[in-house]
Task: structure prediction
Amino acid sequence: MGILTSDKIKEYFLKSSDDKLIVTPILDPDTQLGLTTIDLRLGPKFKVDLRTREPVIDLNDERPIETFFDHTYRNFGERFLLYPNQLVLASTFEYVKLPKDLFGLLITRSSWNRLGINLTSIVQPGYAGVLTLELMNKSSNPIALYVGLRLVQLCLFTVEGTNSDQYITQSISKYVAHSEPKTSNISEDKDIEILNNKFRNTIRH
Amino acid sequence: MLTSELSYLNGLINDLYDFEEELKRLSLKVYPSPVLKQFITKELIPIVLNIRDIFIKDKAKLDEDPHYNISAKTKAAEIIWSSGYLQHFAWAISESNIKSYPLEIMSFFKDLIHELDTSNFEILAVPSHEINFSFSEVWLPLKDYLEKNIGLKSNNETLLIKLTFPHTHRHNLFLSCIYAHEIGHYFDRRNDFWGDIFTKVIKDRFILKKFKPILRTSSDVDNDAIRIVILQKVLGSWIREAIADCFAVCLLGPAYVYSTMEFNIFSSGRQQFHNNLLMNIYSLTHPPNHLRNNFQVKLLKELGLFRVLNNRLKNEITEYNDQINKSASYYRDSETRLDLDDTLYLVENKEFYDVIEELWKSTLTPIKSRVKSFLKNNVMTPKQVEEALRLAEERIKLAVPPNEYEGKAASVPAILNAGWFARLQYRADMEKVLNNIKGEKADYNFLENLNSLIRYALYASQVHKRWQE
Result:
């Protein structure tokens, strides 16, 4: 596994169909394409977590996780305030599609890290969609974000022993072709069903 | 408690105190538009205060003299209040919010209004529970009425456009091309295209004579009466629909034609569902579907937008066109009274509509030339259809949004058409790429995925375009 340099990234942009790396639109290639990273911008849609009468997010409850969030929107260039300790789901402005032989690591740009916003996320081979950003302000002051600012950077790695199926076609893939931030689909995990069937409902005292 | 002019005025005054409070609360939560907030505080609240003052003054006079005659100004002000216009205004503003807004498509139309009409406008997006679209300016009629009837002047020149759309279809871009038709109505009303075209057609006295035997009258009817009747009731409405259709075809090309076909599933399709019969209904307000579709397809061909489609996409249009042209025509054959004096009746029968149809067809050429010259370079081109074909094949088919074309922002008409082209051609390909197009929700999920890609593309391309400017 090796990290892709800007030359290699550009080569991937020029490949055909399934082998092609897509990051669209890159508004300012000179600024956004770094030596080993692609800077991505903050998108316009936000899902802000709510305090509700049902105090627990529990995978065994039927309540959809979406209902723990309120959604809002800002125009390009408009301000969004991120309060301390508030969870906000946003997304990249750019739509990303990785070929089956690339893996992505998404991290906040260091200048935002130093203000108290840091996130790390992985992007599976074959993923297609905007990238959801789990924003959390860890400083003690609200931080003004502006839609369209370069917020995160994507590092790309080649994958050894590539699977023949892409992430996008696998039955476990839950975050496909989305164009806005997506709340967690953790309740679709089969683990909770297995835990319930094999352990929780048959606890032996 | 007795019902009297005084008690009625008292009730009105109290209602207006309530309404003022409601507006103040509304001004605090109007979001996200500062323009609307300002409109409430600078326009609506002063109107309410003025109307209330008018009532209070007359109430004082009535208190002094029970025989006092209520002033014309107070009566005019009462009409404003009892018509519910102000209340409707407040309701529209309170219902308007970003969460129900068909944002991505409206940005395109906003840019169009900026370019062709004015930059001072605000859109109130009001969701409806019916499959109904409308787009109309609501402030100027009230402003004019206030000025003429109670002498209340306003310097606010910002247009307030009320957009009504079906809430459940707010993100359905396949239906949203219908907005282009509504925008056509808007431009028509602002520029009185239909009035000019109507006048030219109707000035021919020979044509007017054709109507005399058709109309049932209890006395002699002159040409002016016929002109007014036809203007108010039928031909005017038909011309307005043709203008709106012309706008939509010129702006969005095949995508609009496909959208009207989809829209008709909800109207004609419902009739067929219940009556097992597909009908072309002749009505006072709209030309029947087959005439409208024939006009749209003909225009599509004249603009060169049909010939660049492949056979699969052409067939979709021609098969539908054949189907509705073979459908049964339906005439109500009922009498409609056309004037208050009870002297003039219109019978909605084949004979009447044959004349209307002939007249309407004679307006189509001037309509096309008028609309095209108004839209200038916003008329869709064959090159944009070709762009759409490639966007569908090279991007949407692979689950990539069609926002970019040859390194530049794709055009909105191309994006919307690409969505339709992918829907009609690439479902099997997309099933291979996306994992959720299966089971009983397969069709729904397919359309959701497509809508998601197109919505994204509309937004991203518009940002991209502004960035590149």
